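task queued by scheduler; priority normal; single chain, no ligands, no partner chains; default sampling; output format set to structure tokens
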Amino acid sequence: MQALITAYELAPETYKGFVAMQIAVLVQDFQSPKEARPWFEAGCKHADIDLGWPWILRGANLMYMEEFDAAISCFETALREDHDLKDEAYFNLGLAYRAQGRYEQAIDSLKSALQINPAYEEAINALAGMDNLPETFRLIAEYRKNSGEIH
């Protein structure tokens, strides 16, 4: 690990983001998302080469820590950047919205991912798992109201 930190310190500014992201992923995998957080932040701060992945990975790390609003902000930033990973950003945005119970927004985001990449298997599966979810919740609420559970 110390070798990577030294590489980060010695790297030219244009490569600091790349090195920081490598460290972030390793720290996340072998230590914890919390300890990886500053490395993801550094990777995004120096994201000169790759404008999509740093924000997407940082957002995913925040989702591990259940910081969904911050994750959504990262995915939205990734969507504003110019890169070829918009489908991945929309997919992760959809997962964050789903985790917050914002199902309509989750469905819209997953559909946006599929508009970009119709063969995106994970987005297809996530969307299929949400089929008729808003209607299901409406019916549950109606049932509870009619059965006297809700006053």
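post-processing summary
- The mean pLDDT is 89.
- Residues 63 and 71 are 6 Å apart (CA to CA).
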